[in-house]
UniProtKB/TrEMBL annotation:
It is found in: Cytoplasm. The keyword RNA-binding does not apply. SUPFAM superfamilies: S-adenosyl-L-methionine-dependent methyltransferases. It holds the Pfam family GidB. Gene3D superfamilies: Vaccinia Virus protein VP39. Its EC number is 2.1.1.-. One of its GO terms (molecular function) is rRNA (guanine-N7-)-methyltransferase activity. Keywords: Cytoplasm, Methyltransferase, rRNA processing, S-adenosyl-L-methionine, Transferase. This is Ribosomal RNA small subunit methyltransferase G. Belongs to the methyltransferase superfamily. RNA methyltransferase RsmG family. Specifically methylates the N7 position of a guanine in 16S rRNA. The keyword Protein biosynthesis does not apply. S-adenosyl-L-methionine binds at residues 77, 82, 128-129, 147.
Amino acid sequence: MNPEDFKLALAEQGINLNSQQMAQFDSYYQLLVSWNEKMNLTAITDRDEVYLKHFYDSLTLAFHHDLSQPLRLVDVGSGAGFPAIPLKIAFPNLEVTIVDSLNKRINFLNTAIAELELKNCQAFHDRAETFGQNNDYRASFDLATARAVAKLAVLAEFCLPLVKKGGSFIAMKAAKTDEELAEAQFAIANLGGKFIEDIAFSLPDEAGQRHLVKIEKRKETPNKYPRRPGLPMKKPLIK
């Protein structure tokens, strides 16, 4: 998917990028490839593949969730900035917070945020478990996202404490989610969430199937969650 095809494919979904936004995506790609030579940010570096499997893939969230309003979004375990930075470029009205545990990635993200001149976008070097216990951010976001960084039961414990009542957590998954979803129901319920839907679709150019698992925050998360660093991964909330 070259940049022009990327622009046209998004327009078909009602997302119209202007020349400044297209220039930001180009700068983001150049930064990604440049930094990737000195640190491991992505295994995908071919331009057309990055536009499809990182940029377009990140924006599929907006096909199924209204981002046209000013929302506070937190992206947990963002890595090289997916989906947070593509979403911020396409929807400048978003107030974006990125959390990642590796400082080298945060350095890259801060450089990208500065060079792309993204306002109301900040990156934090922190564990999801400790960030979720920070009262400055806990239960303060309209939307939390995570893109395939762990199993759903674990992601729920990372993300739901950050979402305010009435907000949503959307997990972006590549693999089939039936088993993960069944396994995660206990965690979702205990963390104050309610499963809404699992949206399955395929990326263009036979680039694979994707799932968006949407969970709504119905009740406040008990204060004991998220548990101490490492415990959600080691002992997920599974019945």
